[in-house]
């Protein structure tokens, strides 16, 4: 049996998404900048996808810009904002639990004359609003805080953060990759100026993302060249992928409330099953302010990476740390930030589900998890 429990790393492409894309990878191959019919059709397809994204976010289609991935969107939002406002100030506020694409962009800016404050988080992964307020200086130009964390699923107080940003006239960017399709987002109510999203986390194709840029907000050009994306992000559009993102986000928003309730129920059952059946374990993250599909556990004396390998042998796909730090021996910066001791941080594993998981799959997963954790612990005992 195959049980895919790594939806935070990537998701399978939806059939309807793929079908809509295929036309633009074969028959309708014209360059969207060309003025003959197949070019115009490609252009129309891109604009239709842009409209779908705008409808999903309840914003204007002029405010949506296609990028090659969320990593690019984060780079563009942060660097574009920093360089455009360097006369106003050089201070940026972010958190210690951001995705690497935010953290490494910030450290690049630090080498280029910017100051960055990395807000700490509490044991659940939440930033403190008081910390945020006291971090603001008259040099602060940007606050970049993720909507929800990809490793432990913690949902940050975005509305309060947006309020503070607006009150202090500071630009607010949020990496909403994990929140799209799981939390209804109101850009206006939350005072969001820049928002990052990615298609492959919502059953769309890899290699396409978008950046919402609030109308009137100026940021630096990211890719210099042609006039695509209003000249701000040049390069011939990835037409099929744009189409795929459009369909994927439309489906992700469809019936979002019902789906979230369903997934939450399944998530809670799995968490309970683990607590009931496996001793010496700890749920990482917040119990309520948590993404509906996220389960992150530490199992004392069970190395997370080894557990991932053992689960894979029986067809169960999970993740230790974040996918990005996989292959390296680096301990998750998120788990360290919530105060886990180094050892327990390496003894952690993330399971991220979706609404299509069956009862049979859940039972198979729980049965194997109990067995493997028990085995690894006993093995550890023998080797001592
Ligand atoms: C996956 C992810 C990214 C990176 O997305 P790509 O499209 O793969 O570059 C950024 N931020 C978060 C929170 C993510 O989960």
Automatic annotation (TrEMBL):
Positions of the Aminotransferase class V domain: 3-365
Coiled-coil residue windows: none
Keyword match Iron: yes
Enzymatic class: transferase
EC number: 2.8.1.7
SUPFAM superfamilies reported for this sequence: PLP-dependent transferases
Tagged with keyword Metal-binding: yes
Molecular function GO terms recorded: cysteine desulfurase activity; iron-sulfur cluster binding; metal ion binding
Gene3D superfamilies the UniProt entry points to: 1.10.260.50, Aspartate Aminotransferase, domain 1, Type I PLP-dependent aspartate aminotransferase-like (Major domain)
Catalysed reaction, written as an equation: (sulfur carrier)-H + L-cysteine = (sulfur carrier)-SH + L-alanine
Keywords: Iron, Iron-sulfur, Metal-binding, Pyridoxal phosphate, Transferase
InterPro entries, A to Z: Aminotrans_V_dom, Aminotrans_V_PyrdxlP_BS, Cysteine_dSase, PyrdxlP-dep_Trfase, PyrdxlP-dep_Trfase_major, PyrdxlP-dep_Trfase_small
PANTHER family the record matches: CYSTEINE DESULFURASE, CYSTEINE DESULFURYLASE FAMILY MEMBER
Family: Belongs to the class-V pyridoxal-phosphate-dependent aminotransferase family. NifS/IscS subfamily.
Name of the protein: cysteine desulfurase
Phylogenetic placement of the source organism: Bacteria, Bacillati, Bacillota, Clostridia, Eubacteriales
